[in-house]
């Protein structure tokens, strides 16, 4: 009996949260240099997004861009996403070669999921590329609706 109540309680909490959000109106939060995020449509209440919350800040999520080159295939040069506005100053060689991005999914981790390293190595073996692994594993935990 106890296990049958949990989904009902969870749905009631989601509904209550959405009612509170609807009564206070659309909410917006802005993060430089990314821009602003709102709880208005298309990111409002829907079947795909039943819980409407603004995303956490990039600093909380902790996204880091990890640059790998053919000359340095196993050691990355890291750049926090909050410093992305000066990416060409930090990585001066980006304009010289094509850049390939690898982004892991929700709940994945760049240190634990070997497919990221394998793919990065294979791309570097195929040609003279820069490979950037986007690591957002610090902030890719539930609830998904808080991610920016």
Q: Could you list some keywords that capture this structure?
A:
2 domains, Lipase domain-containing protein, 148 residues, 4 helices, alpha+beta, 4-stranded mixed β-sheet, 30% helix, two-stranded antiparallel sheet, single chain
Q: Spatial order of the strands in the main sheet?
A: 4-3-6-5
Overall 3D form: globular
Which class of secondary structure composition applies to the elements? alpha+beta
User: Would you count the extended β strands for me?
Assistant: 6
Separation of termini? 38 Å
What string gives the helices and strands in order?
A: HEEHEEHEHE
- Largest pleated sheet: 4 strands, mixed
As a whole number of angstroms, the C-alpha radius of gyration is: 20 Å
Q: Strand portion, in percent?
A: 15-25%
GO biological process, one term: lipid catabolic process
Signal peptide: 1-25
Pfam family, one: Lipase
GO molecular function: triacylglycerol lipase activity
Give your account of this protein's structure:
The chain is globular. The chain has 148 residues and is an alpha+beta fold. It folds into 2 domains: 2-52, no CATH class; 59-135, no CATH class. The strands form 2 sheets. It has a 4-stranded mixed beta sheet with strand order 4-3-6-5, with helices on one face. The chain has 4 helices and 6 strands.
């Amino acid at each position: 009996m106890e296990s049958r109540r949990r989904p009902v309680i969870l749905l009631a909490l989601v509904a209550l949260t959405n009612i509170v959000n609807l009564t206070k109106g659309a909410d917006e939060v802005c993060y430089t240099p990314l821009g602003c995020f709102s709880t208005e449509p298309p990111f409002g209440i829907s079947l795909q997004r039943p819980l409407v919350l603004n995303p956490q800040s990039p600093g909380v999520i902790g996204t880091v861009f990890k640059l790998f080159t053919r000359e340095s295939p196993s050691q990355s040069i890291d750049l926090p996403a909050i410093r992305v506005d000066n990416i060409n100053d930090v990585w001066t060689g980006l304009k010289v070669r094509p850049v390939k991005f690898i982004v892991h999914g929700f709940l994945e981790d760049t240190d634990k999921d070997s497919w990221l390293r394998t793919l990065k190595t294979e791309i570097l073996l195929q040609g003279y590329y820069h490979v950037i692994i986007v690591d957002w594993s610090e902030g890719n935990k539930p609830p998904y609706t808080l991610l920016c």
